[in-house]
Amino acid sequence: MNGIDRQVVVAEEYLVQVVKKSQTCRSLDQLRCHLYHHARSPCLDDLPPTSNATKLHIKRAFYATHQMINVLGKTEDDILDPRLYGFEVVDDLLDSQDGKYAIPEEYTRLSGAIVPNVPLSAAPVEKTTCLAPHSDIVAVG
Length: 141
Prior knowledge:
By secondary structure, the chain is mainly alpha-helical. The protein has a domain at about 5-100. The protein has 4 helices and 4 strands, in the order αααββββα. The strands form 2 sheets. It has a two-stranded antiparallel sheet with strand order 1-2. Strand 3 (about 110) and strand 4 (about 115) form a beta hairpin. It starts with a helix and ends with a helix.
């Protein structure tokens, strides 16, 4: 893991504590799972963004900050490749990545089998901690 990737992980762990203090979750995906399964009436609008979306946002913010700080005294060492910081080239233009893998596969499983296009509300939910394996969280009855 390179320096920026390690800093992104640390920033995500910090954001987990900002959203829900004293939480044992280490990623926003784990926190989303925990919040969803422990809510009285779960609502997707109340959940924090996914880990992937957050990591891309942190990288883009780092890139923009770096560019602003170094705009006047830019040297060869100060030039960053924006494709490593949450951007992609589309039709010869720089565009932000939209998180092609927004929800990790382990959070799209129902009873160990991937079931596409089945809302989680269709399955009874067992309450558990955010660090438990997902196959223990949702049971199809």
